[in-house]
Amino acid sequence: MFQDRLEAGRQLAAKLVENKGSKNAIVLGIPRGGVEVAYALARELKAKLGIAVSKKLPFPGNPELAIGAVAFGGVVSMDDSFALQHGVGKDYVEVEKKKLAAEIKRRYSAYGVKFPNVKGKTAVVVDDGMATGHTVLAAVRAVRKGKPKRIIVAVPVSSQQAAGLLKAEADEVICLDTPEWFMAVGEFYRSFPQLTDEDVTGYLKSAKATA
Question: What residues contact residue 90 under an 8 Å CB cut-off, 6+ apart?
Fold first, then answer.
């Protein structure tokens, strides 16, 4: 159980240093909650903070259940077998992809930043937790296009299934807790408020000012 996202970020930073994964690193938070974790992590590592926008593609009628995700650059991660099994049509998926692409573009504009140059660097992709793992997986695939030297996924908590999914595509996965029973990320935080675009912008500006 973490007190809040900032404490979780500090704990992740200690683990990264222990694993020698902080050299020449750029920390990329997934908005919104992942940016708060990434902010604390980047401060501890004295690393640059950026964002990797990725949005979950929801199951029809259930916005909390992700059947996939779309990241910047139109990169997609989909659970095709689950979608097929539950009769999720291609038309629905295509409409949602377009909506998410527009929202991703809006967020980069709202935050006043672009995706940073990660070529030849260690990119640390951060979220506040992983349930299905698709949001982070789509982000990892998008970041990979920037040709970083390595990609490390750093999350405070993850379902075992999601951790396994990411280990297949990231160079390293650092997770502080992979409980056997996993329902929702927020269950593992004492304080888990919803963040706003203004909160994200504030963390990005604060990180830039102290860099």
Answer: none
